[in-house]
Design a protein that fits this description.
This protein has nine helices and eight strands. By secondary structure, it is α/β, with parallel strands linked by helices. The protein has one domain (26-312): Ureohydrolase domain (Arginase, Chain A).
Length: 317
């Protein structure tokens, strides 16, 4: 039973919902105890890593902040504007954080690939909380091994395609293309508003001005035009949002879309086969009133509803 739902003891009297005492899993879902016995459609995991940052550190605390702040979403059994209870349709369990030795990024990479691969091999989807954006590279490697070459749906203020060294959160998608993990010709980057090498650039870019001026529905339509019919990995850097909506991040860039606009876009992606998701770069030391963590948790909840609706329609493979 979801820890946020009412329970009735033998007396028949309602038992108070214990919400704010301790919420150690996302939305209060059950902890994953035995992968082989699990009936989950999707498994949540955290990756508390921030050694790849170039700006402000602190994203190692992101997974805990997202889980803790999700208490504000967990009480609402049916999330507006959906018309069904999420956990009536989708089974979700939380595996906790990936364990690795802090200060040893190579260990993080190996363990993320090992653990994510085992969850995918068990027939489940994985939703990961970062951590800085570098964690997406080992996640893509694990998903590529299971699904083959992927399309990438990338929400961000930055393209993260710089050629550079390992363990750098600005280089992952340069390496992902070189390794054949993703096909840039059928990948989309959304919300970009920092400079990049535009000549012969292989990705479809919906820059921040285009997204803001055309609106959420047009953004979703264009995304589906490029990605439709392909296995999609979605990665969401919280700095895609304007800093007024997400101040708690390492490299904030003004001029981005609002949280509501992004939620509308994500809500309209039911037609896409999104096989995995991560949300990264929530940095609690720079957050205010949990605004950024709540935005991240809300985007992830919206994705769970999209997945649940795909299951309701028989589209989940």
């Amino acid at each position: 039973m979801n820890s946020t739902q009412d329970a009735r003891p033998a007396t028949g009297e309602p038992q108070p919902v214990f919400m704010y005492g301790h919420l150690s899993t996302f939305l209060g879902v059950p902890r994953l105890a035995d992968l082989d016995a699990s009936k989950a459609d999707l498994v949540v995991q955290g990756i508390p890593f921030d050694l790849g940052t170039q700006g402000r550190p602190g994203t190692r605390y992101g997974p805990t902040a997202i889980r803790t702040t999700s208490v504000h979403l967990a009480w609402e059994e049916t999330r507006w504007p959906w018309e069904f209870k999420l956990f009536d349709e989708l089974t979700v369990e939380d595996a906790g954080d990936v364990a690795f030795t802090t200060g040893m990024p190579g260990r993080m990479v190996d363990e993320v690939m090992r653990r994510t691969g085992s969850i995918l091999a068990a027939g489940k989807r994985v939703m990961s909380f970062g951590g800085d954006h570098y964690v997406t590279l080992p996640l893509l490697r694990a998903h590529h091994e299971h699904h083959g070459t992927l399309s990438l749906l990338h929400f961000d203020a930055h393209t993260d395609t710089d050629p550079g060294e390992d363990y750098d959160h600005g280089t992952m998608f340069h390496h992902a293309v070189k390794e054949g993990l993703i096909d840039p010709s059928r990948s989309v980057q959304v919300g970009i508003r920092t400079d990049y090498e535009r000549k012969d650039y292989p990705f479809t870019v919906l820059d921040a001005d285009w997204v803001v001026n055309h609106g959420p529905r047009k953004a979703a339509e264009r995304i589906k035009e490029v990605l439709g019919g392909h296995a999609v990995y979605m990665t969401f850097d919280i700095d895609c949002l304007d800093p007024s909506c997400a101040p708690g991040t390492g490299t904030p860039v003004v001029g981005g879309p609002s949280t509501n606009a992004v939620l509308q876009t994500v809500r309209d992606l039911i037609d896409l086969d999104i096989v995995g998701l991560d949300l990264v770069e929530v940095s609690p030391p720079y957050d205010t009133a949990d605004i950024t963590a709540l935005a991240g948790a809300s985007i992830c909840l919206e994705f769970l509803y999209v997945l649940a609706e795909r299951k309701r329609q028989g589209l989940l493979r």
